[in-house]
Amino acid sequence: MRSVTLLFICIFSLNTLWASSETVTSGEKVVYLFNIRENIAPGIWRQTQKAFAEAESMKADLIVIRMNTYGGTVLDADSIRTKILNCPIPVYVFVDNNAASAGALISIACDSIYMREGGNIGAATVVNQTGEPMPDKYQSYMRSIMRSTAEAQGKVTVVNGNDTITQWRRNPHIAEAMVDESIYIEGIIDSGKVLTMTPTEAVKYGFCEGIRTDVQDVIEKAGISAYTISEYKTTLLDKIIGFLVNPVVSGLLIMAIIGGIYFEMQTPGIGFPLGVAITAAVLFFAPLYLEGLAEHWEILAFVIGLILIAAEIFVIPGFGIAGISGIILALGGLILSLLNNVKFNFEAVDPVDAFISVTTVLVAVTSAFFLSIWASSKLFAAQKGVFSHLALHTTQQTSEGYIGVEQVAPEIVGKTGVAETVLRPSGKVTVDNEIYDAVTEGAFISQGEKVRVTRYETGQVYVVKADK
After folding, report:
1. What is the reported pLDDT for 198?
2. What's the CA gap between 281 and 203, in Å, rounded?
């Protein structure tokens, strides 16, 4: 675990040195270029925060987002949208082919949109993991975000002949049509179709300021002739975090945690399986912590949950409050670490993301449990298992002359003694000046209390409290 932690510290240090070593050459204007060329996810939101902070620190005159994305999570897209709307620096977006779904929302938030010939913008319907549209309550929320984002661009005055018309700079109704197939806009979209626009259509309907060939063309359109471009560089840490926070990878890490703990419980001592579980836990929580998703108390809840489960298995008899509480805390810690909640405030948590988080954890834990049982039977099975030579498979059959012989005289049954230790339920007792391992058959027995031996079976003494 220490080595993994040191690895993340080293990567973080290199990441900081790399970012701080970048210099900006002199120029009349500073243009900051930020690329979004993958699905919108927590990693992109983290990079957006870093990029905008860097642009503001160097007092950039313009931020240009070069976009080519098919969409992503609504939560992260909404966070990026809000960041753009509140940015004091003008933000332009160059749609370098695709601005679909979450990409369309981010684009509409920008001060100006420019598109490459052959590009597309729209198709912002909320869908699940299989691509099927989500229920209307999710679409209603997305429609509202798209509408309010378009309205945030304000109104413009247009002179049409002798008439002066004040209209929305970006028509909120068109923004809604990118989400809802039931919306009909005469001459633009028929009912039953989700709106996606080409560059020509986007320019015609006011959702695009123009068609350009590259970023330099966009900058010149902004009226900047002499400039220096400072581009955000994706660091090694960004790539590692982006990989580890992927829901599939997170699920595999959870499986490694559960599987490692299961196999560690099947073997004596502390060994390789526990090391795998600890390493997987660090790789699971560390990037989520850096992303701002996992908080201290969520990680602590997971650790306390494991401790309670271990106590229930090895210390407390049966399975009760400790075990149930441990399971709830462990699962809760895993699920909450994947959500963008602030303590117990879940207003900013998108229901789709909550569903994905719960499903990821439950499927991973269930799969890990059953796969561990299957793997244990296959790997350690007699003769056929890969590691069968590490397990003891020899049995002593009575037909071969092996018999069990009691090591304690029958006379001990019925006698009284004293509890040498607390029996909860196991401990030690003294009978006839001899110390025996014992198990209480009734309530827990405190140290020093009198006990009476009720029976002796398979090398084990059973006692109850003696009548005073």
Report:
1. 95
2. 50
